[in-house]
Design a protein that fits this description.
The complex is a heterodimer of chains A (about 450) and B (about 80). Chain A is mostly helical and about 450 residues long. Chain A has one domain: Ammonium transporter AmtB like domains (Ammonium transporter fold), CATH 1.10.3430.10. In chain A, about 65% of the residues lie in helices and about 0% in strands. In chain A, strands 1-2-3 form a 3-stranded antiparallel β-sheet. Chain B folds into 2 domains: about 30 residues, no CATH class; about 35 residues. The chains are: A mainly alpha (about 450), B mainly alpha (about 80).
């Protein structure tokens, strides 16, 4: 870098994404506390370690192939041509944003004096991957093997969410072009897909012993430590600030980017390179959090677990359109999504005997789907991309945001890339006898041996 | 081994190379051996799954044979 202003912009962008990564780390700290708080005493340590070990497993596989998938798959392949090379094949050519540069052996995937962005951008997406896997982790506590969870975490964290990000988040994604898909802060791209995946796994895994009575009535297995749950959710809220910031591009001159001669317009943009402001999304983040908290408190009659979860569900519902909504719209959309998530959680639990231990499918999956559908109506007609706007199904043009496209998008996120892979992989693991811990171990507690050894140590030292 | 032995020389080389359209910017050691490191890393990753998966299954089988009751763990709660 030899130009001072250019260097300042580059270093600012590098530092911006780096800060988002640090903030998003708190999401994982929060998820760990939340899960341990929700699990029973005899399962605490294994619950903690299960969620902790997704960090290295998703990280290394994200380095090996996850990041490559994101850059290779925007065209489908075969569904819509790239605006970079006009081919609908995997993007592995010499073009600027090709997956070729992000194979694990590339010199851009290392300390490189000519590149200040790849590492921090890779890491920001990696933290999204951890979140996707961690959402699944909470739903299935106290009965899954750590081995099976490791496989499932890699599947959602380094494969399926990154495919949906390539399709629905990448500026060249086919879902933007053909469907007018818009999901600025990942209602679907992270939350619906992870919620759907968790539901698919739960359908095979089954409920915790004792969750349902012999007549099929669900029983409440309340959090062992509500304070851990509360602090965990506060940390997730905190980390979400980084999540929102990471979904933006901090500074971009849209004039030349859009091909407008003589126009200079520096702004923050959404991930779709459409203009927004960090200030504006701060309004919306806080108002959607508030809408969710209000609805959660009301619908659960003041239950702390659902009130906190309601705040999260509120943000998730409004996230798809929070780059453009008015704060009051964000608040009311959040409240409605939270109400839907709560009602759907208990309906699915009773109807299908699904034991979602922390309400992850509801808070992330159902709220995410509701958010996508609402976004299709409220933002109907807005461009899904800044590059070119056309009608649906015409290839390299980008369809505008519309309800039908967003409903199809929600089905793809929750069902096609979420539920189906989760169900199929869980079935395979179940068939191999690797999915669920033995009944005797579940009853005794995953930590039985650790507790027994600790007791022996105590006796020996006293 | 060392990719850089003289920073001044290295940075000067970078500037000259850039004008010819070539970036010489990777400064990690043993440039060109990335495939070897990737192969080793993938083997380590796969081995981790096999080894820890087998260990977990063995631990579960041992505990299942002991058949502790659902409340036996309470006898092992320490006062630490």
């Amino acid at each position: 870098m030899t130009d001072g202003l250019g260097a300042l912009m580059t270093i600012f962008t590098e530092f911006y994404y780096w800060i988002t990564v640090v903030l998003m780390f708190l999401i994982h700290v929060g998820f760990c506390m939340y899960e341990v708080g929700a699990s029973r005493y005899k399962h605490h340590q294994h619950t903690l370690m299960k969620n902790t070990m997704l960090i290295p497993l998703v990280t290394v596989t994200w380095f090996f192939f996850g990041w490559w998938i994101y850059w290779a798959f925007p065209t489908g392949p075969g569904l819509a041509p790239s605006i970079m090379n006009e081919s609908a094949a995997l993007i592995t050519d010499e073009s600027l944003f090709s997956a070729k540069w992000y194979v694990a052996t590339s010199n851009l995937m290392a300390v490189n004096l000519g590149d200040h962005i790849s590492g921090v951008f890779w890491a920001a997406f990696l933290l999204f991957s951890w979140t996707a896997a961690s959402i699944v982790s909470g739903a299935i506590i106290e009965r899954i093997t750590t081995f099976a969870f490791g496989i499932l975490a890699i599947a959602i964290g380094s494969v399926f969410w990154t495919i949906d990000a390539a399709w629905g988040w990448h500026f060249d994604g086919w879902m933007l072009k053909l469907l007018g898909y818009h999901d600025a802060y990942a209602s679907g791209v992270i939350h619906a897909v992870a919620g759907g995946f968790a539901l698919g796994v739960l359908a095979v895994l089954g409920a915790r012993i004792g969750k349902f009575s012999s007549s099929g009535e669900p029983r409440n297995i309340g959090p062992r430590n509500p304070w851990f749950v509360a602090i965990g959710l506060f940390l997730i809220y905190t980390g979400f600030w980084g999540f929102y910031a990471a979904c933006n591009i901090p500074i971009f001159d849209l004039g030349p980017e859009y091909g407008m001669e003589g126009v200079t317009f520096y702004t923050a943009t959404s991930i779709y390179v459409t203009p927004t402001t960090l200030s504006g999304i701060t309004f919306n983040f806080l108002m959607s959090l508030s809408g969710g908290l209000l609805a959660g408190y009301w619908v659960s009659k003041g239950d702390p677990f659902w009130t906190y979860s309601g705040g999260l569900a509120g943000i998730i519902t409004a996230s798809a359109g929070n780059d453009l909504y008015h704060p009051l719209q964000a608040m009311m959309i959040a409240a409605f999504g939270t109400w839907c998530a709560y009602k759907l959680h208990y309906w699915v639990e009773r109807r299908f005997k699904i034991d979602d231990a922390v309400g992850a499918v509801a808070v992330h999956g159902y709220a995410g789907v509701v958010g996508l559908v609402i976004c299709g109506f409220v933002l109907w007609g807005y461009p899904s991309s800044g590059y070119s706007v056309g009608s649906m199904w015409v290839g390299t043009d980008y369809a505008p945001i519309n309800p039908l496209g967003m409903i199809i998008g929600a089905i793809i996120m929750f069902g096609v890339l979420g539920f189906l892979p989760g169900y199929i992989i869980a079935k395979i693991l179940h068939g191999a006898g690797k999915l669920r811990i033995p009944r005797e171990v579940e009853l005794a507690g995953l930590d039985y041996n650790i507790l027994e050894q600790a007791r022996k140590d105590e006796r020996a030292t006293s | 081994m060392a990719q850089v032995t003289d920073w001044i020389k290295h940075l000067t080389t970078d500037v000259d190379s850039a004008t010819e359209g070539v970036q010489v910017a990777d400064i990690y050691p043993m440039v060109g051996t990335e495939w070897m490191w990737l192969t080793v890393a993938i083997i380590f990753w796969l081995w981790f799954h096999v080894a820890t998966g087998a260990g977990e299954a063995e631990e579960h089988q041992k505990l299942a044979r002991k058949r502790p009751s659902a409340n036996d763990y309470k006898k092992n709660i320490t006062e630490w």
